[in-house]
């Protein structure tokens, strides 16, 4: 056979501007999933200070909480978790074969809801930080 | 004609467990977030409070299941993602056992911490 | 250049080719399909209506045969027609057993519906996509049996021995051009070659046929010495979309769709084309009415009239004619719920083709044909809707079986020039056939005959095709597309639904001009990889040959029978014209002669009656 | 007005001296002549047409054998617009009038042969089924992504066909009624498989799926084909079991991440994602016998 042209990786990642709702949902779900599992590991690591005793535990937690950046990261974490949950529920419905026609709409709804919840939670998360 | 795929590793169990843990996690994660960020603000957390909660068997069991479910769900998800990216052969075997070991360590450490958090008060 | 050897080589993988391959395989032969398109891309997939088969109580194959003979305007051969009608039920159920997704009745049996010209609702269907299911179901069976398929392999010529008399010739195989690599391959057939290359619709500018329907098989068989039969009979469908030729089914008119001219008149009634039936008159009547309207200045742009179904109401349309909405919007950019659809007649089906007997065999030993490219003849002067698909499976299977093993009942239909009853004597305005140039015959002829052992014959043919391809590649010539469009233009202008002597003669001259210009074509794409330019160039040559035969037959036949209409001869003339037209290539000097129509069936004779419905 | 002769055309001329070395002189001459006559035709076109009446196509070109096409490029074609014109019509016009080496598969012109699935303005569609005036101009026409390009718009379909073959795409019931008796199938069951039987093997779905890209994932079309048989009650339980095993293999249904792009692009509107999901549930049910 004569040689043919393989357009390679450009094909896989270069076309993101042309992604449809379902593809974005997939990308975001992956991303949020990875963040969450990453967080789970750090979370346990931080909580491990409990073994060292109360002062260590309290100190670490409160020390972290005192950092503004951590507060912002918490908002981010919430957004990530909320999106993952909402889209996860969307995916569960898809798995059950329910509402497939509205798959794009439910994705947009998840996005909007995530945004709304994240914004609404800012006062709580940032409360007492300043 | 195409050769048939011979690897008969059926993935339906892991697929199903991923969904089952997801359903479980929706509930517990929401509960967890509410409790530790909205009811008790994170910056107010102290070991004393934690110990109080952990000492209740129900809460302890919930948290440990949360940990196990979350770890399975997350690590299995990561593994699936890598397989989808086309990881094959030896690297795949390494990743697989690597992830299993890491998960077990995480769970073990988690339980150890949770146990410590009870301060031996678990009734 | 590679030589492939098989017992049976089937050229073409539409409904007829696939069925032939399966039959040959079941008869124990090592069979290969050689096709220019991947099998599932064949145009059989476009058939919508259904398959006629007498399956139910109250129906019988005899009734089906009667309807078919009447529909053929008594130009069908009774032994062929009866074979079709007898075998069709079994073949249709065979498809069901292979899993074809037929529409179903409440009791779980396959559905049948009424169709034009049938005395019983015996058209077995699978939604509005019967052909698609038929094609895919048979391809599945080919995959199941592991039959070798050489796809995207364009057959450029047959390898036939060079005996003087075509009836002594033997077909030893064929030559394929691998489209993807540009390599020429020889195919040696130990038992036989079955041609199943489909219709020649691309002779016309406007057709419901696919772009690949260039009738290559007819042209190759013709040049090898097999006569082409009844080529003047071409069915035109009255309602096709002007931009693409996509067919709008009779269903629209059946449900009450109305045809209007540009004065907004319902011309079928107002101009008296069909005072009783109006839009529901038979295909040829409606097609001629439309062309008359356009010619008299009452058409829309694109030579179209309007087909309006808005008055049926959105609900009824979406319920019964939903696919029409998609067709009109996708292919014509017209929403039929909002505006009328432009339609015009388009070439639809070729009743004529390669002369064969009921076993699919031609006068050349080891050469078979089946499907639209063949003329057995079951359709005579006019094909009934739903009779082509059964033809594919019935005669496809028979051809495949016979090619695989020579046994089986002898045929009643005689082939070759020994069946000749009379040689035609007509005036032609120009030379016909081969252009004498002395040198570049390879390009112009596309093939020659050879002697020697089977392998030698194939090897010589291979060598000759190689030369032909090289010449085309190297010639500094004109684009075949120009020649093709001239050809299509004159055919559309002069050999359409209306035919008269002057026009037909003009067409012959134009075809001659095309043939002469074809001597100068060249392929400008220098690449060997997927050179479609080369393939289309060869196809154009095949179209020229067939157009000439078609027009010659149309000029000779001075009567109005079935789909063939002549201006100064507006009645059917049974005493004079109850005969088939045959055109033989005669090594480059086309000859027209006639053979008998066989009206004598198994147990009865079909007496010609007036064809009125 | 612009002509269809693109930047690349001048590149081609710049490369002339190289080409003469590996092309027969006659061919070279012919190409040149061809170009000149194309230019003339173009001019003829330009004088009669105004810009609004033409459609601007940008078409992907590549040919492993032709020097100036070895590096993929886009050529511009300006085609006189007509009502009802499809992308395929425009391509045919370009080929027949401007450049006979423009290569693409096509046949039926009515969305049934599945030859001309292309990447048109960033999405997989059939050229013949896409009205050109519904698209933004210039209309960008590329071969299907995720498949190797053989030449111009022609891609290698082998992988797709192989995947189709993997699911044993044929009816296998051995226990058939005799003679002219049919296998009975109720209407509901026929209705259930109806959409899945409409596939025309165009490969659009496979090309649109990120998971199928590069990997060995069976892909939506093949899984849909399996669905067609799994759900067909005329095939017995044993076969169903066997089929479920095939689609459950490593590269089967579990690879699907419900991206829905296959469903979005399928020209036959087959609910592919739904079929895949149903098979997943079917497989789980089947394995959890107590369901
Ligand atoms: C729109 C439409 C609707 C129709 N509806 C009906 C209907 O409802 N009922 C009915 O009975 N009939 C119908 N017909 C007619 C019927 O579909 C056709 O006559 C029939 O499908 C022809 O089948 P075939 O196998 O002879 O050829 P095709 O299906 O056309 O196949 C031809 C094969 O030959 C191959 N081939 C051609 N040339 C070459 C070559 N040079 N080298 C190698 N391979 C080659 C092609 O690749 C292809 O595989 C319809 C036709 C059309 C166009
Ligand atoms: C709380 C409710 C949650 C729900 C409903 C949920 C749902 C899902 C679902 C359905 C998937 C599978 C996607 C697929 O295979 O197509 C998934 C993947 C994943 N989840 Fe969750 N999940 C939740 C919580 C979590 C948590 C707490 C973590 C972190 C520990 C997590 C980490 C992941 C990861 C890493 C993936 C894999 C993503 C990928 O494909 O790369 N999830 N989730
Ligand atoms: S499922 Fe749809 S998109 Fe995929 S090959 Fe079949 S028809 Fe094409
Ligand atoms: S796009 Fe691919 S991921 Fe699944 S839903 Fe379709 S197969
Ligand atoms: S040309 Fe056949 S699908 Fe478009």
Bound molecules: flavin-adenine dinucleotide, protoporphyrin IX containing FE, iron/sulfur cluster, FE3-S4 cluster, FE2/S2 (inorganic) cluster
How much of the residues of chain D is beta strand, in percent?
5-15%
Quote the CATH topology of the largest domain in chain D.
Answer: Fumarate Reductase Iron-sulfur Protein, Chain B, domain 2
SSE pattern of chain D, N- to C-terminal: HHHEEHEEEEEHHHHHHH
Report the radius of gyration of chain D as a whole number of Å: 24 Å
Q: Can you count the helices of chain C?
A: 17
CATH topology of one domain in chain C: FAD/NAD(P)-binding domain
- Per CATH, which architecture of the largest domain in chain D? Orthogonal Bundle
Q: State the low-pLDDT regions of chain D, or none.
A: 1-27, 37-50
The assigned structural class of chain C equals alpha+beta
Structural class by sheet pairing and helices of chain D: alpha+beta
Number of domains of chain D: 2
Shape of chain D: elongated
The parts of chain C where pLDDT drops under 50 for at least 5 residues are: none
What's the CATH architecture of one domain in chain C? Answer: 3-Layer(bba) Sandwich
Q: Could you characterize the architecture of this molecule?
A:
- The complex is a heterotetramer of chains A (130), B (123), C (613) and D (291).
- In chain A, 78% of the residues lie in helices and 0% in strands.
- Chain A is mainly α.
- Chain B is mainly α.
- Chain B has helices at residues 12-39, 47-54, 57-84, 89-118.
- In chain B, α1 crosses α3 (57-84).
- Chain B is elongated.
- Chain C contains 17 helices and 20 strands.
- In chain C, strands 1, 2, 6, 7, 8, 9 and 16 form a 7-stranded mixed beta sheet that branches. Chain C has a 6-stranded mixed beta sheet with strand order 17-15-10-19-20-18.
- Chain C is globular.
- Chain D has 2 domains: 54-155, Beta-grasp domain (Ubiquitin-like (UB roll)), CATH 3.10.20.30; 158-172 and 187-287, Alpha-helical ferredoxin (Fumarate Reductase Iron-sulfur Protein, Chain B, domain 2, Orthogonal Bundle).
- In chain D, β6 and β7 (154-155) form a beta hairpin.
- Residues 1-27 and 37-50 of chain D have low confidence and may be disordered.
- At the C-D interface, α3, α4 and α10 of C face α3, α4 and α6 of D.
- Flavin-adenine dinucleotide binds at residues 11-17, 34-37, 39, 42-44, 46-50, 130-131, 154-155, 196-199, 208-209, 212-213, 216-217, 247, 349, 371-373, 385-389, 392 of chain C.
Give short descriptive properties of this protein.
heterotetramer; A: 130 residues; mainly alpha; 3 helical TM bundles of succinate and fumarate reductases; B: 123 residues; 4 helices; 0% strand; disordered N terminus; binds flavin-adenine dinucleotide; binds protoporphyrin IX containing FE; binds iron/sulfur cluster; binds FE3-S4 cluster
